[in-house]
Design the sequence.
């Protein structure tokens, strides 16, 4: 093919990127190991391809601008389905508008380190829950959540990460409509202030904030017999293996004060106040000492 391309990859997807390069006449490679910042140099190529997780694909979307971008996801981040990319500054996470990329499946069997797997699992699960919790939810977004959670169930019975990635794609479609809200707003503070991995922060918050919101008919989406069973299963997946990644110096007042600076925190169906959120975060801290 007489086209040029920039292929953005993670350290784990470099060999796959090399295979992709045979499609093009001239290729540059860019390795990404962390989420994008504003210091991104845009390169003039016919195609920009991102093969990897959310940070890789968000970087590809930003660099591509209005050019053709192909996303080949290897995690359940859902970044290949959204019209924006995350920018992590020193003290705040922001988003920039992008085009939705062209989706292409990763052809190999996906293998992820356990921490990365758990991180992307809880990130995608949070996307689903927040799409349901959102005051901007629609029939279409709820449909995507339903399809995603069906694939989550399939993944739990097969342990095939490629299925989990597909579940993440559907969750990405849902939040492309609703955007994220309560869980992600608080998770940003945990990541920026306490250096907790983004997906792990979501996993820590999920059972407590599901309990706090108390969404009606949640059982139907999770195909579960009871509300308590949903919370119990999420906790059993997260604990105790991820608990060692949570620092012991969490401060509820600081976390909630900074989380309230994100306007999206008010986009869930339940009204939130500083007082009630501090109680939730204090409960998390007390139960996870």
Sequence:
């Amino acid at each position: 093919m007489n086209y040029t391309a920039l292929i953005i990859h993670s350290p784990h997807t470099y060999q796959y990127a090399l295979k992709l390069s045979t499609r093009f006449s001239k290729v540059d490679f860019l390795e990404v190991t962390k989420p994008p910042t504003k210091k991104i140099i845009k390169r003039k190529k016919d195609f920009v391809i991102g093969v990897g997780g959310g940070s890789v694909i968000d970087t590809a979307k930003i660099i591509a601008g209005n050019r053709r971008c192909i996303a080949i996801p290897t995690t359940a981040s859902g970044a290949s389905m959204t019209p924006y990319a995350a920018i992590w500054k020193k003290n705040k996470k922001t988003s920039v508008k992008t085009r939705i990329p062209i989706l292409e499946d990763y052809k190999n069997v996906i293998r992820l380190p356990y921490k990365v797997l758990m991180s992307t699992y809880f990130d995608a699960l949070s996307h689903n829950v927040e799409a349901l919790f959102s005051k901007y939810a629609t029939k279409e977004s709820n449909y995507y959540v339903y399809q995603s959670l069906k694939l989550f169930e399939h993944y739990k019975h097969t342990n095939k990460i490629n299925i989990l990635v597909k579940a993440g794609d559907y969750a990405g479609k849902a939040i492309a409509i609703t955007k994220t809200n309560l869980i992600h707003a608080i998770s940003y503070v945990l990541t920026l202030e306490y250096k907790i991995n983004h997906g792990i922060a979501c996993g820590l918050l999920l059972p407590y904030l599901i309990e706090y919101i108390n969404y009606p008919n949640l059982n139907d989406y999770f195909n579960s017999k009871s509300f308590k069973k949903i919370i119990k299963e999420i906790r059993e997946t997260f604990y105790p293996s991820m608990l060692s990644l949570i620092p012991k110096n969490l401060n509820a007042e600081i976390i909630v004060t900074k989380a309230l600076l994100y306007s999206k925190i008010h986009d869930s169906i339940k009204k939130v106040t500083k007082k009630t959120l501090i109680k939730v975060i204090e409960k998390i801290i007390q139960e996870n000492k």
About this structure: The mean pLDDT is 93. Residues 67 and 151 are 32 Å apart (CA to CA).
